[in-house]
Amino acid sequence: MNNHTQSQELLAEEESMIDARQASFALRLPYYWFADPKMRAAKRIPHYLLSRLVRFRLSELEVWYRQNGRVCGAGKLGAEGGDD
Q: What is the largest CA-CA distance in the chain?
């Protein structure tokens, strides 16, 4: 089996899609990163536009997060500054 056939089989499994709130919760990143079109573009977050809805595949977000860990880490709560 070649890589092309394997990727077609993976697509056929139909991974469910999640919304911005679920993506934010799953990756523990700010909600606005996923909800705001400018932030999605700036951070190069993989997403799909289904009519007017924005949806994400968790597997793609996990790959994106691993590749952009340094950029993502700065956005986590408590990463910058101290507690009051």
A: 57
